[in-house]
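Re: weekly structure request thread

Next one in the queue (165 aa):
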Amino acid sequence: MTTGQIDDRFGDPTAAAPSWESVEALLNRAELYWLTTVRADGRPHVTPLVGAWSDGRFAFCTGVGEQKHVNLQHSPLVAVTTGSNGWKSGTDVVVEGTAQRVTGRERLRPLAEAWWRKYGDDWAWDADDEGFAGGDGSRPWVYVVPPAKVIAFGKDPHSQTTFRP
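Done, posted below.
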């Protein structure tokens, strides 16, 4: 990512832009994310989910019967958010991009390992050529979101910084 561009219209004029490294560290550490997809009729669908920041992209999975999967068949445009709900502390991050399905055992195995390193046995997946495979028989598809734009919202002082590839 490039150096962030702080937008002085939306924050304290004394605020400084965070480094991309600090924003990426936050994306990597986050335990919970919120995924926004778009239904066929244009209504948004927002859901919390686990995921992994891997190789500069957000990765997530979804069952083929879930609403987010149905929505992605209509439109792959998504927003991913994470942060905290405090007003005076932390940083919130929004990643905008296009979800891309990942297939092939050689591409999926490192993502399954990233889930295990982050969440342990709670989210231990095997990988095959089509997606993840769970011990309970689940077969979620896996997607990555290369960022088209990342916005970091600082809270102390308040600021808005945009990063683009």
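The two ends are 5 Å apart (CA to CA). The first strand starts at residue 5 and ends at 6.
Next request, please.
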